[in-house]
Amino acid sequence: MARVSLTGQVHKTLLAHLKHGVTCIDATAGNGFDTLFLASHTGEAGHIYAFDIQQQAINNTKKRLAETDLLDRVTLIRAGHETMLEQVPATEHSKIDIIVFNLGYLPRTDKSVITHESTTLQALNSSLKLLSSHGYISILAYPGHPGGREETEAVKVWAKSLPTTYDVRIHEPENSGGSSPEWIEINAIAE
Questions:
Q1: Partner of 185 at 20 to 30 A CA spacing, among 68, 131, 133, 153?
Q2: How many CB atoms are located within 10 Å of the residue 163 CB?
Q3: Mind listing the pLDDT tens digit of every residue in the chain (191 residues)?
Q4: Is residue 83 within 8 Å of 52, Cβ to Cβ?
Q5: Phi, psi for residue 95 in degrees, rounded to 5
Q6: Under a CB-based contact definition with an 8 Å cutoff, are residues 39 and 125 in contact?
Q7: Distance separating alpha carbons of residues 90 and 84, to the nearest angstrom
């Protein structure tokens, strides 16, 4: 039996939350794989806001979406994810269904351009203000690069400190030597 990648597991879990017409945020567009996945499962009435600080990431994502005729479902924003509260229209605040983070760096590019603990925590705090009462946040964190361990640990501490109105699940790989990706899931629980 073929082993499913962690990204594949995340996508499989996202399917349970993806319904026609949902609104999502891809907080780290990267090469556009998560953005494309979200756009292909939200239907024509759905919408995705995709963030990245690198123009190359925006270009890569735009190309991937254009090739599949899904570009009209996505607003591409060249800005850090820490600005999402200002960038996403106020009419969408408290209405976002899914927010996806894939931390680290853009593969096959300058590995010194990475997500950082301070801006990621700011983005996560903003996410709570954007998330709907039944919303879902997925965070893939990569501790194996310089700065990655600190960011991963900070995200886990942040997640564990959330009130009981959130169901938090932290998936830590066994026997990885501390360098394998870790997955944090957060489900909002309506009161």
A1: 68
A2: 7
A3: 455 588 888 899 999 999 999 999 999 999 999 999 999 999 999 999 999 999 999 999 999 999 999 999 999 999 999 999 999 999 999 999 999 999 886 666 666 666 777 899 999 999 999 999 999 999 999 887 777 789 999 999 999 999 999 999 998 877 656 678 899 999 998 76
A4: no
A5: -125, 0
A6: no
A7: 11
Q: What are phi and psi of 134, to 5 degrees?
A: -120, 20
The model carries a pTM of 0.93
Question: All domains of the chain, ordered by start, with CATH?
Answer: 6-188 (3.40.50.150)
**Cα–Cα dist 170/172, whole Å:** 6
Three-state SS letters, 53-93: CCHHHHHHHHHHHHHCCCHHHEEEEECCHHHHHHHCCHHHC
Pair 38, 13: CB distance under 8 Å: no
Three-state SS string across 115-149, please? CCHHHHHHHHHHHHHHEEEEEEEEEEECCCCCCHH
Dihedral class, residue 135 (left if φ above 0, else alpha if ψ from -120 to 50, else beta):
beta
C-alpha–C-alpha distance, residues 49 and 83, integer Å: 12
Distances (CA, A) of 47 to 1, 4, 127, 155, 176: 35, 27, 16, 26, 36
Cβ-in-10-Å burial (0-12, 13-18, 19+) of 160 comes to exposed
